[in-house]
Amino acid sequence: MGHDISSFNRAGQQIGYVRFTMGDVNAPLFYDLLDANEYYAGVSGSGEVAILPLDQVKKALKAFDRWKAKDFGHKGNQEFLLWQRNEIQKFMNSCLETARKEGTVKVFFG
């Protein structure tokens, strides 16, 4: 079990992916960033798709920047945490790029 979160453009092409294990304390924080707590199902995502408008993606990216500034996830393997932070950044950037082009981005919470 875990959180497999994918983002898609309007054509249905996957543009981003990020994964959290079921016990990762950063998983619920990630849902908070996207204002998508209704898709959080504990050990995994709900299996549903959210359509996020550009405003919501921009807000999520700003929240992520604040989260990084507070040095989220300081407990654990620092190398892994840096890798995870970079993966989240790539996911957020791809969502922003797509939402800027298309007005929205689809996010699947598996």
What does this structure look like?
By secondary structure, the protein is of the alpha+beta class. The chain has a single domain (2-109), classed as Hypothetical protein yfbM fold, CATH 3.40.1760. Helix content is 45%, strand content 25%. The protein has helices at 26-33, 54-69, 78-102, and strands at 2-8, 14-21, 48-53, 104-109. The chain has a four-stranded antiparallel β-sheet. Strand 1 and strand 2 form a beta hairpin. Helix 2 runs antiparallel to helix 3 (78-102).
Name of the CATH architecture: 3-Layer(aba) Sandwich
Q: State the CATH class.
A: Alpha Beta
Biggest sheet statistics: 4 strands, antiparallel
Biggest β-sheet: strands ordered side by side in the sheet: 2-1-4-3
- Helix and strand content put the structural class at alpha+beta
- Number-wise, the strands total 4
Number of domains: 1
CATH topology tier name = Hypothetical protein yfbM fold
> What is the 3D form?
globular
Order of helices and strands: EEHEHHE
Radius of gyration: 13 Å
Portion of residues within helices: 40-55%
Compute the number of helices.
3
- Percent in strands: 15-25%
- Residue-averaged pLDDT: 93
- End-to-end Cα distance, whole Å, is 9 Å
- Report low-confidence residues grouped into runs of 5 or more: none
